[in-house]
Prior knowledge:
The chain is about 45% helix and about 15% strand. It has 17 helices and 12 strands. It has helices at about 5-10, 20-25, 30-35, 40-45, 55-75, 90-95, 125-140, 155-165, 190-195, 215-225, 240-250, 270-275, 285-295, 305, 315-325, 335-340, 345-355, and strands at about 80-85, 100-105, 115-120, 150, 170-175, 200-205, 230-235, 255-260, 280, 330, 360-365, 365-370. The strands form 2 sheets. The protein has a 9-stranded mixed sheet, with helices on both faces. The protein has a 3-stranded antiparallel sheet with strand order 10-12-11.
Amino acid sequence: MDTSRLLGMAMSFVPGVNAAFVRHMQECGVEPADFFSASRVSLAERLRLNNAACLDKMVRDEALFRARREAEFMERHGIVSFSITDEDYPFRLADIDKAPVTIYRLGSADLNTGKMLSVVGTRHSSAYGTGYVNALIADLAPYFPSLCVVSGLALGIDSAAHTAAINAGLPTVAVVAHGLDTVYPAVNRDLARSIVGHGGAIISEYPSGVKPYRSHFLERNRIVATLTDAVIVAESALKGGAMSTAAVASSYGRELFALPGRLGDEMSAGCNRLIRSQKAMMAGNVADMLAMLGWQPESVHVSTKQRDLFPELSGNDKILYDLLRFSSEPLPLDVVRERTGMPISELMASLSEMEFDGIIERLPGNRFSPIRY
């Protein structure tokens, strides 16, 4: 690790030093090298601080010692750091008032790539929520080959988002609430390896040895919310980590989407409230979302069929198409009838017409699924 990067990381080990303090240093023309080498009297004068404990020489020396020890761990495990004083620090994070002083990254994902999208939700996800996440990311991939999908490595929607990105050939970043010497939850160790192995990354603001304390997850959520251009809440109860992520995203002007669910569904209550209160736009198909985001496709090699993935449907056809599209598996006729409540004559007429038009397909066992290209 070069000296400037080491000193930048060392700033994060100084008690009381946060992003605002580092910005104040920059405004006063004090570089990290100055901070660790100058006398307390000189620093106090240049920073216009008289009694700040962080200026104590023993405190600064201890921070440097911890940084050197962390650098040794990072070198052994292929971890790199980005400090807020570095040019390659994630630019989307750089301007928020509570930006992490240092970010640690295991993996190769570009944290400054052109398009980044966070997908969050409940740990108790349903087939409806995971099906939507799978379909959304699979359909985004042809349009945006460099899109990076961000989530929090939790069970449920987070895991579905990471997995869908890997399956679609997209890099994915997992923001964790602990040091990079461990994986939480432990059941996601294989997923974490797969994320890194497929060009993604695990990132954290915490050095090695820091455990996943409850408060860290709330702090982690601000990174999930602001590292990206937009946030999608796929499923959430009225309270939970996804709702705190949504609140942070909204406060920092990130585009916010929520997947609507049935009235009375506990795990859609949070999403429905976000939409009802006009804090989030309704998450729909890719065509609608791209229009709202103003994103132009990166790839010029998207086929005609891929560009026409979202037929203009209405009435029963739209209800049926959305039901099948957001399902993680083909649905039998009796399940479709139960979930839609349509009379069988109307149901069969719509299914037959959509099958004829090449929008859906009928599978063995009288099961139905949207045609995916």
